[in-house]
Every structure is written in C-alpha cells, then in structure tokens.
Amino acid sequence: MPNPSTVPCQYRTGRTLGSGTYAIVKEAIHIKTGKYYACKVINKKLMEGREHMVRNEIAVLKRISSGNRNVVTLHDYFETAHNLYLCFDLCTGGELFDRICAKGNYYEGDAASLIRTIFTAVSYIHSAGIVHRDLKPENLLFRTPAEDADIMIADFGLSRVMEGGIGGDKLNLLTEVCGTPGYMAPEIFKKTGHGKPVDVWAMGVITYFLLAGYTPFDKESQQAEMEAIIAGDYKFEPHEYWANVSETAREFIRWCLTNDPNRRPTADECLGHKWLASATPHFVPDPESPTGGPTDLLPHVKKAFNAKGLWRKAAFSIRALNRMTVLAGTGYVFSNNHAEAQRLRENVATYKEESEKAREKMEDASITHQHESDPSSPASPSHSGHPSAKNLHAEGKKNILKKQDDISVDNTSNQNLETMMAKTKLTEKDEQVEAEKSKSTLSNSGKST
C-alpha cells in the first residue's frame, strides 16, 4: 500500500487549557492567520478500535457548526502519525458559575435570561436532529471575558444524530449509563430508550442549580442520587434558599423535570413558558428595596455553592472509566479502588502525556490524509479487493466494540451495575404498588361480604 500523502501542519501549539476523557485541550495558533483556537488532541493509541466515536463527534459538529452563535464551532480537523486534532472556538470567558460568582449581584431575571439563551441554542441543536446528552454548567462557557460575551454550549463528545434523522424519536443507548449523574434523566438509568427530552431534563437541573447554588438530586451516594432521579424525588428546600425565587420559576423547573419523557416539554415549548417568554421578568420583591425591586439571589447561591462544594469536587462522569473498561474487554463496571481500574487510569494518563509531550510537536508534524472527507462516511474499501485476515480481525474488533458502546434499547446482553440497581428499584416499587392494590382489594372484598 502506498504511503499516505502528507502536508505540513498549519498550526503551532500554545499552552495546555485542560484535560478531558480521551484528550488534552491545547491552545492552537494558525500560522498564517494568527487566529487562536482550542485544539482537542486525541492520542490514536487511546482510541484504537473506537475511531467511530471521533467520527461521530465530527459528524455532529459539521451538522451544527456556524449555525448558532451560542454553539461552539468546529473550524478544522485532521490527523497526524500519532494524534487526531479537532480545532474549536477558543472560549476565554470562563465557566458559567464562575462568571455569576464574580458579579456584584445576581437576580432571577439574570438566570432567566441565561436559560432563555441556552434553550434557544438547544432548540437549534434539536432542530438539526442532534441530542447533546451532556448538558451541564461545566459545558457552558463564555466566548470572551466581556460583560456581553456570548455563552456557548461546548463538548459534543456524547452527542448523537437521532435515528430517522430530524424526526427520529429513539436513540441507541450506550452500554454504560452515560453523562454526568446529577444531570441525567430517569430514562437513561432505566434504559427504556432516550432522545431529545434528556436535554430538557438537564436544563431543568441547570435552572434549579442557577437559582439555588446546588442541584435538586444531590445526595450522599451515587446510588441514592440515581434512585432520587428515577423517582423524581426533589424539593425546593431549604425554605430560606427558595423564598426569594418566584413560583413561576419553580413551575418552570417542575415542567422540565417531568418524569415521563413523552410528557416532558420540548425545547421550543420551554421557550414559550411565561418565565422565559414574558416581557416583564418574574421575581420576588426585595422587602428592603424602596422601589420593590427584585431580591438579590447571589448571597444564598454562593453560600450553597461553598457549602456543598459541588462545582470544584470531581463531578464523577461515569462515561470515562467505564468506556475504557469496555475497551479493555472487561464489559463491567469497576469500583474506584479496583486494581484493574487503577491500571486503566494509568494507561489513559500515559497516552495523554504522550500526546502532550514527547510524541509530537504540532507545528513540526505532518498531516496525513487517511480519513474520508466526510467523517460520517464508511471507511474506504481495501485496495486488494479481498480483505485480509488481519483486516477482518480488526473490523470484527471494531464491530464488537461499537456494539458494546452503542446498543439498541432492546439489547439486554449488557447489564451494568447502575442498570441493575435501577431495575431493582423499579421492580421493588412495582411490587409495592401491587401489594397495596391487593391489600385494598381484599379490604373492599371483606367490607362487601
């Protein structure tokens, strides 16, 4: 097979901006234009057999990039001998809650304005046939430090194009429950099939968080949190935090957190709710204000945030380690103390360090053209016309990994801990309901005799 053609890289790297599940994010400067970008650097070793995940992210971003000012744009993507590179908007304005805490005051109207803007972007994403699946405050970034900077939805690594295109309702599910637990909808845990409504649920959790400084399902353990989500068990408490929030805002949150996804509102319907649509903002008047202006929410929000430590504690995203355990062929979830889990974490760290340091300097690397121009298209056929045993083995491995990573809603071959816990909880509840019904029936029968 001839060597792939190469061209010099058009970017040079700057400082490291952060680290994600499979990648590091570095500042990248285009050599000719001098423009700055955020570049996701993915080590090929780490993604071996999982290339479809990167193709999926590119396909999603190509569909929605540059169509909405509040959605991050994919400007370029390419690969070299060792790494894959995705170049995005460089957002320098910081995370959402950092910006709120830096303000001198913060009112319910400010929260409504933020949620309105984000929901407009979510509506755009959904209209393009995309579900994000990982909406949370950490993925909401400001473009610049300016006061009027755009807020951006970022990180489409878990996003999917819906089955059946724009009108599709069902989605292939990940083997492991995906997302960030506190923001995940009940149907994700139940594995009954999920789609765009999971983003609306996440927006309900974000709205609650922006008004109180903590999330509605925050519990002492992950199991308790999951069970609360499945049951829709949350309250607007303590009273002192919610006394300054309007009933209209609480009604909006309740609507977004409708347990049944078929009855949950769409993004467009949420934009029509009076809390977002009214020209006059909703608020609880400040009793100490001579003009009856809105109450400042910032003191309570910051107090709750500091007490819970929600933002800066490691918001455990179960997708990372669980996907790596599947990649290693284990097929089940490890506890954090498991020796195999430790080994996998070390491998991830090693591969990411290779991407960042020794293996390759971006500006000195040559870009190879091994992928199709359309990242969502199938791989090119073998040049020989007959696939080799090695190619068949590699293709088989990829297919197995993909089935483990994305499974249909009726596939029950993979049962992870969270799923079994969820199903056990639901079974217990069903049995309890049936027992109550039987008790009631016997009681009524006794009365009639």
From TrEMBL:
Region (Disordered): 350-449
Record-listed ATP binding positions: 40
Keyword Nucleotide-binding: yes
Domain Protein kinase: 11-276
UniProt entry keywords in alphabetical sequence: ATP-binding, Kinase, Nucleotide-binding, Serine/threonine-protein kinase, Transferase
Biased composition (Polar residues): 409-418, 440-449
GO MF, one annotated term: ATP binding
Pfam families for the chain: Pkinase
Sequence ranges of Low complexity compositional bias: 375-389
Biased composition (Basic and acidic residues): 350-374, 392-406, 425-439
Domain of life, source organism: Eukaryota
SMART domains given in the database record: S_TKc
Family: Belongs to the protein kinase superfamily.
Name of this chain's protein: Kinase-like domain-containing protein
